[in-house]
Amino acid sequence: MNPNNMRIGHGYDVHRFDTEHREEKPLTLAGVVLADKMSLLAHSDGDVILHAVCDAILGALGEGDIGQHFPDTDAKFAGAASGDLLQQVLIIMDAREHYIVNIDITVIAEVPKLTPHRVNMISSLANLLELPEQRVNLKATTTEGLGAIGRKEGIACAAVVLLGGHA
Ligand SMILES: [Zn+2]
């Protein structure tokens, strides 16, 4: 890999929990629908992990952010499956002749407990990103009860990605 073609990107996203669980908008993280009876407020499905991943890839490419490419004022993206948005981002990455070397993700949440879902979420990410699972790292942490996340008001996610260039 030519080190001159390596690019690093960072993504960060937060979504607030809805006041009640909405059947039509189940909690979806990393493309996995969780059984926990809670929903995130969002124009799309609110998949905070996939949004951070999209922003990290777009950031590495110098392509702005997810809001620029898929504006939430556009009815076309209402209730959009974030996996579809990620596919669009991967098409942009392919067009720019880059590929993912590895990705490291940190979810910041007090609830739900993510440990039981970790294996499924990594497998889903590897599948969506067309990467071996060894190149996808997913960590979860809490804020020790501090702040909005600590008060269980929402979920945040940060992602860092390294891209290599085919050229
Ligand atoms: Zn988002």
Question: What is the secondary structure topology, with strand pairs?
Answer:
Layout: E1 7-16, E2 28-29, E3 32-33, H1 48-61, H2 66-69, H3 82-95, E4 98-108, H4 118-129, E5 136-141, H5 147-150, E6 154-165
Parallel strand pairs: 4-5
Antiparallel strand pairs: 1-6, 2-3, 4-6
Helix pairs in contact: 1-3
CATH topology: 60s Ribosomal Protein L30, Chain: A
User: Roughly how many Å apart are the termini?
Assistant: 9 Å
Q: Give the DSSP E fraction (strand runs of 2 or more residues).
A: 25-35%
What integer is the average pLDDT?
94
Structural Rg: 16 Å
Summed up, the helix count is: 5
Describe the structure.
The chain is an alpha+beta fold. The protein has a single domain (3-165), classed as 2-C-methyl-D-erythritol 2,4-cyclodiphosphate synthase (60s Ribosomal Protein L30, Chain: A, 2-Layer Sandwich), CATH 3.30.1330. It contains five helices and six strands. The chain has helices spanning 48-61, 66-69, 82-95, 118-129, 147-150, and strands spanning 7-16, 28-29, 32-33, 98-108, 136-141, 154-165. A four-stranded mixed sheet has the order 1-6-4-5. A two-stranded antiparallel sheet has the order 2-3. Strand 4 (98-108), helix 4 and strand 5 (136-141) form a beta-alpha-beta unit. Helix 1 (48-61) packs parallel to helix 3. The chain is globular and about 50 Å long. The model has no long low-confidence stretch (mean pLDDT 94). Bound molecules: zinc ion.
